[in-house]
Amino acid sequence: MDSSDSTSLRSREWAWALYDVATSSFATTVMAAFFPVFFKQFWARELPVTESTFWLGAVSSVGALVALVLAPVLGALSDAGGWKKPLLALCAFLGVAMTAGLFWIETGAWELALLLYGLGLVGFSTGMVFYDALLPTVTVPSRFEHVSAFGVGMGYLGGGALFAVNILMTQKPEWFGLPDVTAAVRMSFLMVAVWWFVFTLPLLLVVREPSARRASGSAVRAGLAQLRDTFKHVRRLKVVMLFLGAYWLYIDGVDTIVHMAVDYALAIGFDASGLMLALLITQVVGVPSTLAYGRLGQRFGAKASILVGLVTYALLVVWGSVMSRQWEFFGIAVGIGLVQGGVQAMSRALYARIIPKEKSGEFFGFFNLLSKFAAVLGPVLVGVVSYATGEPRLSILALLVLFGLGGALLWYVDVAEGERCASEL
């Protein structure tokens, strides 16, 4: 990549980061907030609660499984054919179309709503493979930490801004010319689709992928052959293997907190009305803290920054196990906002340093594959401890195992050796 033109370099970085703005709206407004609630209360309101929960969980799992299977394969194909941008566009527009489609689904049509949501999840999750893999294309190694953190921070800002508007729409639909809350939620889905589409365009128009296009048939054959080679390469790149093991453990802890924090708060008797506000607080705090994390990563290294984040997570888990007042939950939400985006961004930046640049799509396919496996072990640990002890407060302490083991493995990751091995592969 020619980095002599600093203006061109910065414009590529900005265009790349705006895709995080695009997808964060789906992650926050649709996945985390509105779809699960609206599915139960509108589309599947005739189903028993246990049945609607089953189907929602099943579709979420199937969507994650499809993305998990596709990630390394499409990553290899994108490297062989120079197809990162076209495949990202395909995934993004699939997600946009499915999310927009939710606006028109009528009450009772829960099967169709789940189908669109599941396909939207596939587009969202698979597209992130190519987005992450473009990081070495849009910037230089000395800026990996800063640019990765900038992307996550922009995502918090964009996703949080739209989420705040969507929450206000549900609280005051008449301010937006909407008749009721139902119309406000449906309009939110359409707004997310438009938002996702608009903020995808800069990456597609500005970022130039190195020309390595092959005919589709030869690219598929080369991609599959490259995928076979990657299994051999990963075994040879011991630093990469060690980091991926550490990443799987600690990101499982991070994602378990994301998925189960509200459920845990309800289990210990907190009022549900303020919990969505806590989610918004995490988004708001995440903007400046993630950008600051990028600066810390440049100065002290991504590895040290991740370790600080994991220690912070461990302290927050301990606090959560003894909290008794709702304001403490908001305090923990602030704490999570301080480190969540930074840990994610620094993990991506560190990984980009220790993998071969020309195989970034393929290797990031494995990176995102592990992300799909995240929040598998954590919920099991939490559930087993909760069932065995009958005490939710003890169950959350099980996450200390994930943060402790993940941090211990990360401690032994030799980044300099990883960079050397990647350059020789």
Q: How is this structure best described in words?
A:
Residues 238-425 form the Major facilitator superfamily (MFS) profile domain. This is MFS transporter, UMF1 family. Its main location: membrane. Pfam families: ATG22. The protein is mainly α. It has one domain (6-208, 218-424): MFS general substrate transporter like domains (Growth Hormone, Chain: A), CATH 1.20.1250. It is 83% helix and 0% strand. It has helices at residues 6-43, 49-81, 84-101, 110-133, 135-138, 144-171, 181-206, 216-236, 238-267, 275-300, 302-322, 326-353, 360-373, 377-389, 392-395, 399-411, 415-424. Helix 4 packs across helix 13 and helix 9 runs parallel beside helix 13 (360-373). The radius of gyration is 21 Å and the shape is globular. Residues 1-7 and 214-219 have low confidence and may be disordered.
